[in-house]
Structures are given as structure tokens and as C-alpha cells.
């Protein structure tokens, strides 16, 4: 039979059609990937952590990954538009806490996106008081609320900053019902705004972090900007993994005194409230599962090698890799705990 040009093209098209399912099943991350993050800061912990992971993943797979600090709302929009794998996202617990608190721009990530692997914990979420405050501990603060004293807490509403405040109110409610009304929020913005609220005597307690605020705990007596830690929300087991030298001039053993069980903020009268700020991937729900498998496998190999853990700990992050399925179950369990705390202080479940 004589092969015409049309016959040859038809045969080629048929061969391509037959091969298509196999090519789809083998889909991998594109050569160039945009990694959007839920922060607009290129100096904050979200960017730092994401940059470490992006560099390790790019080197391991031989691709290019650019971290883009666009903020939560824009990051979710970008992720929703792209199911090809050219756009991925890293954020932390605020992705679901924002939804629980009803913040604009936050959907339920478990319903609207695919949850990817966890990669690290920032154990630094903390609460501080002025250096000259009469309150030396969370016990002092909760007793003050029980005695009728108004305690003002500066937070950035709707997420990681607020969940510790909710836990304070819940602990006051458990210990002495009604005293939670004496713990009140001072809604601010960034960390510098919260610091300023303390220095302007607009807040008695502020949400801060070990990384951002430790320097102020080292100021000399009488310095108006001096602070002292009263609570670090991370689990004891998480902080135990931090470098022994701690951060700045505060050692790990000193930091552990402000975390459970040494510092107790009760969850239900029997166990303490704890909160680890965890970073994890989010994916477009229609992205090829083969790409998720590729990322899980690559990260497992990267963490098995061990170099990334050194970089993370050098920036005071705690390595914490869980593959996608385990990460989703773990984060959903956290979500349920914090949803109950929020519901308790709002008066409805």
C-alpha cells in the first residue's frame, strides 16, 4: 500500500492519542514553578522558610522555583487559577484559622484546595509584657483577670496571632467563668504595630515571636522598650528540638520555662493549650495527583539526606516533614481543636 502524506499524519495522530493517557500519568512539575506565599514580607518567617524549601526542591528536581510574596488573598487566587502545577503555595496555620475566624478572603482550605506536605515549624509564637510589668507570668495574668483587672492584649486579628489570645480567654473561662471578659483584644497590624501599642501603654500584653522580640528582652533596666516573655505556645517536644543556644542571648532551656508544662495555659482543666505554627504546601484541587506524589517523594528524599534540617535549624525552624496524606489528617485534627476553643469563647458550638 502506498503511504500518502495524509496517511502518515493520520497514523501519527492516532499514535499520539493512544499515548496520551500514559503521558498524563507521568506528568511532573514544569521546568519553571511559581511558589506563592501567604505573606507580603520578604523578611518574615514565611518567606525564609519557603525559600529554604524551594531551593532544596529546585536543586533536587533540577527545576526553577521562584518564591513570590503576594499575601494570602492573592496567593489563594493565583493557586485557584492554575491546575497545571506551575503555581504552588506555602502558608501556615493561618490558612484555616482565618476561615475559622471569618476573615475576608479565607475559604476553607480543606474543602477548596489540596493539602500538601508539612515542611517546618516555627516554635517562636510568643506573648510578652513590658519589662516593668507587675505580671511575671501567665499565672499572674489569669489571676489578675479573675480579680477583675482588665488585661489588654495586642494582636493581629484572624489567625496565628489571635489563637493564643483565644486560648487565654478560654483558660480564664475554665478557671473562673466570667473572668474571660476581663481579657480584651487590642486589634493592631504588624509586629511593629503590636510593639508600639505596648510602648504607648495601649496594651498590657502583646503577641510577638522569639525571633522578633528576643532582642527587647535583653535591654537594660529602665529601658522603655524592654520586654519579658510570659508564654511561648509551642509544644515542649517542639522546643526541645531547637538548638541548645536558643536565640540571641536566650538559651533553649530558658525558653522552655515559658512553654508547657512549665507555663500552663489550660485547654480544658486537664491538659494545656499548645500551638505549633506549621508551614505546609497547598495545591490546586484539580492538579494532577502525580505531581503531588512527585513532591512528596522528592521532599522525603531531601529530608532523608539531612542537609535541609541544618539550614532550617540555623534559622530557628524545626524540621517537620509529613507527606500529604499524613499532613492533611494532622492539620485537620489541629483545626478541630482550635475550632472548639474559638466556639467556646464565642458562646456557641
TrEMBL record:
It comes from the Bacteria. Residues 1-24 form the signal peptide. Keywords: Signal. This is ABC transporter substrate-binding protein.
Amino acid at each position: 500500500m502506498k503511504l500518502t502524506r495524509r496517511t502518515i499524519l493520520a497514523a501519527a495522530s492516532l499514535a499520539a492519542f493512544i499515548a496520551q493517557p500514559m503521558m498524563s500519568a507521568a506528568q511532573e512539575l514544569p521546568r519553571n514553578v511559581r511558589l506563592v506565599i501567604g505573606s507580603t514580607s520578604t523578611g518574615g518567617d514565611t518567606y525564609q522558610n519557603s525559600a529554604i524549601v524551594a531551593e532544596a526542591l529546585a536543586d533536587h528536581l533540577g527545576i526553577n522555583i521562584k518564591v513570590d510574596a503576594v499575601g494570602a488573598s492573592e496567593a489563594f487566587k493565583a493557586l485557584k487559577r492554575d491546575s497545571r502545577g506551575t503555581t504552588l503555595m506555602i502558608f501556615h496555620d493561618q490558612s484555616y484559622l482565618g476561615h475559622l475566624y471569618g476573615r475576608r478572603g479565607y475559604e476553607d482550605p480543606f474543602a477548596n484546595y489540596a493539602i500538601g506536605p508539612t515542611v517546618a515549624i516555627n516554635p517562636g509564637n510568643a506573648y510578652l509584657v513590658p519589662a516593668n510589668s507587675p505580671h511575671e507570668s501567665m499565672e499572674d495574668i489569669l489571676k489578675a483577670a479573675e480579680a477583675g483587672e482588665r488585661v489588654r492584649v495586642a494582636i493581629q486579628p484572624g489567625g496565628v496571632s489571635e489563637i493564643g489570645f483565644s486560648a487565654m480567654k478560654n483558660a480564664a473561662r475554665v478557671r473562673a467563668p466570667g473572668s474571660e471578659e476581663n481579657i480584651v483584644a487590642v486589634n493592631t497590624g504588624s509586629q511593629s504595630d503590636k510593639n508600639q501599642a505596648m510602648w504607648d501603654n495601649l496594651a498590657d500584653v502583646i503577641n510577638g515571636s522569639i525571633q522578633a522580640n528576643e532582642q527587647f528582652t535583653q535591654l537594660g533596666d529602665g529601658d522603655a522598650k524592654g520586654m519579658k516573655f510570659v508564654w511561648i505556645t509551642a509544644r515542649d517536644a517542639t522546643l526541645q528540638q531547637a538548638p541548645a543556644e536558643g536565640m540571641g542571648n536566650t538559651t533553649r532551656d530558658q525558653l522552655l520555662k515559658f512553654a508547657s508544662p512549665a507555663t500552663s495555659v489550660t485547654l480544658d482543666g486537664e491538659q494545656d493549650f499548645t500551638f505549633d505554627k506549621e508551614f505546609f504546601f497547598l495545591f490546586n484541587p484539580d492538579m494532577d495527583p502525580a505531581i503531588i506524589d512527585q513532591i512528596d517523594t522528592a521532599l522525603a528524599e531531601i529530608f532523608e539526606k539531612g542537609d535541609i534540617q541544618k539550614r532550617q535549624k540555623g534559622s530557628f525552624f524545626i524540621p517537620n516533614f509529613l507527606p500529604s496524606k499524613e499532613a492533611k489528617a494532622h492539620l485537620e485534627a489541629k483545626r478541630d481543636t482550635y475550632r472548639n476553643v474559638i466556639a467556646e469563647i464565642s458562646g456557641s458550638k
